[in-house]
């Protein structure tokens, strides 16, 4: 069962960290991690072996280190080392050349518990919706190719979410 206190604490943290940010579609950014959480939660119901508390916090906080001023130490202080390490693995290293960032993140994710792998796949499932209108075909193709790399690298974590990601990758072709 979802721990409502932990869910609310993580959601409040994410909402404060992402305050004022918007998605490409103009929605409050905090809706994105909530969608990722629900996508990841669907896996929990078919695999009770997962650490639901880690799944909750990693899903709701997955962009806080990368996209806000919250930082690793703050996430660690409030939610513990396991969550902070997972969120850090989900964050791209901005010091690396852009073309190396995803592979680096995936290698770090593979060293984390399966819950972190699932959050990454859930994140890409959510992001495979309608692409930003300013993306050209080349950008959309590259994004789909990157999604397939995520699928290939992390599919062993859970066959159900991997299959859902694979389906979304195929469906994304309608935007070309």
What's the arrangement of secondary structure elements?
Elements: H1 4-17, H2 31-44, H3 52-61, H4 64-67, H5 71-79, H6 81-90, H7 98-109, H8 114-127, H9 137-154, H10 159-171
Shape: globular
CATH architecture: Orthogonal Bundle
Distance between the termini: 40 Å
Taken in chain order, the helices and strands follow as HHHHHHHHHH
The tally of strands reads: 0
How would you describe what is shown here?
This protein is mainly alpha-helical. Helix content is 67%, strand content 0%. It is built from 10 helices and no strands.
What would you say about this model in short?
This protein has 10 helices and no strands. It is mostly helical. The model has no long low-confidence stretch (mean pLDDT 95).
Notable features of this structure?
176 residues; mainly alpha; Hypothetical protein af1432; 10 helices; globular
